[in-house]
Design a protein that fits this description.
alpha/beta, six-stranded mixed β-sheet, 20 helices, single chain, Rossmann fold, 3 domains, about 50% helix
Length: about 375
């Protein structure tokens, strides 16, 4: 079968440059199951369905790239294999029904809202998870930023990274492209993202739109340190931001400003591990998904883990004490005591609808927009 030009180029690059050092294999249960990147590239046969579907067990976390001594990106090859499988109609979307329904709701008329005040060129983009699990703190972050950016707008929408990572390239480009063009046409130049994955998507595909992290803003706030004896926490860096050192620094600055000590795990920053939620692998292989969390649990030494991704907090929270840094910032003592209420489905959907209603009441806008109800 004829391969796409992009996949052919990826296979050729990995085949020519991979030196089979096995550093990536040592770090990744997926590669230990399927082999060294060069061997996978050399043996790839698009006519064999099993070869095309193998890629859906990769978390796409790019740890392989981080440890590679010659700078290749095997996860990029696996993403293109996914795209190729989708093009050939191989993927069984019934397995992803739950997560794709979640995404479709996120871009529907009921859940989306673009509220742009007069002279708005900067918007807060909280993503999907934070408004559902922590609606009050989403409002609190927005109001905090409004004090510095008076014309700040807000966008309740989904970046459609789920479809992007499942290889649904055409759908992703259509859905994200519609949002991007609307923002550009309405004068938005900067998006301030709360979700690491949303940040990654805007950074890669936002073109003229500049993307910033809310943690840069929060790190600059004057913080009253906790009154009790300093406690020690561990920080988990989301893999979506593994190569964004400035954001990793901002998060550690927030934790330190709160008066907390940080006990770093062996694998942090660019060498951080996936939480298990990457690439929607858990819908195919619980073993591969949970393997990541098992290693993190061993390395966190019993400390409360602080992360800055709501998805990571949810995934890792099943096996260890984990808190989102937004909770830590607004309610430090309760967070450290494990007493913060975090909403779960189906309440998360109701929270997002109610948050949209609240924002419509408190934000004076000149542009108010919801996505149209139509398939992409």
């Amino acid at each position: 079968m004829i391969l796409s030009n992009t996949l052919s180029a990826k296979l050729s690059e990995i085949s020519q440059k991979c030196i089979k050092c096995e550093l990536c294999v040592k770090e990744c249960a997926f590669l230990r199951r399927y082999g060294k990147p060069k061997d996978i590239a050399d043996q790839y046969d698009s006519g064999e369905q099993i070869n095309r579907l193998m890629a859906f067990e990769c978390s796409l976390c790019q740890l392989c790239t981080a440890v590679c001594p010659v700078g290749i990106n095997p996860s990029g090859m696996f993403l293109e294999m996914r795209c190729d499988a989708i093009t050939r109609g191989d993927s069984d979307f019934d397995k992803y029904k739950h997560i794709l329904t979640y995404e479709m709701r996120g871009i529907s008329k009921r859940y989306t809202w673009y509220g742009l005040p007069e002279k708005c060129d900067t918007v807060f983009f909280p993503g999907c998870a934070l408004p559902g699990t922590r609606p009050d703190k989403t409002i609190a972050v927005f109001e905090l930023m409004q004090k510095k950016i008076s014309s700040l707008g807000i966008v309740l929408d989904c970046c459609t990274n789920i479809s992007h990572d499942l290889g649904r390239k055409e759908f992703f480009l259509s859905a994200f492209g519609e949002m991007k063009q609307f923002l550009i046409q309405n004068g938005v130049k900067t998006v301030i993202a709360a979700c690491p994955t949303c940040y990654k998507i805007f950074d890669q595909y936002g073109e003229s739109i500049n993307v910033k992290s809310i943690y840069e803003f929060i790190a600059d706030q004057k913080i009253r340190k906790i009154n009790n004896e300093a406690q020690t926490v561990t920080i988990h860096d989301p893999c979506a931001l593994r190569f964004n050192g400035h954001i990793q620094d901002d998060v550690r600055r927030i934790v330190s400003n709160l008066g907390l000590a940080i006990n770093e795990m062996p694998r942090i920053r660019e060498k951080t591990l996936c939480c298990g939620g990457g690439g929607s692998v858990k819908y195919l292989s619980c073993y591969l998904s949970e393997k990541w969390a098992d290693v993190i649990k061993q390395e966190q030494s019993g400390n409360r883990v602080i992360t800055y991704c709501a998805g990571c907090a949810s995934s890792l929270g099943k096996s260890m004490p984990v808190s989102h840094i937004i909770d830590l910032f607004f309610d430090t003592n309760a967070t450290l005591a494990g007493k913060i209420k975090v909403y779960k489905s189906p309440m998360t959907y109701l929270n997002r609808i109610n948050l949209k209603r609240r924002l419509k009441k408190i934000l004076k806008t000149v542009v108010s927009y919801e996505r149209a109800e139509r398939p992409f």
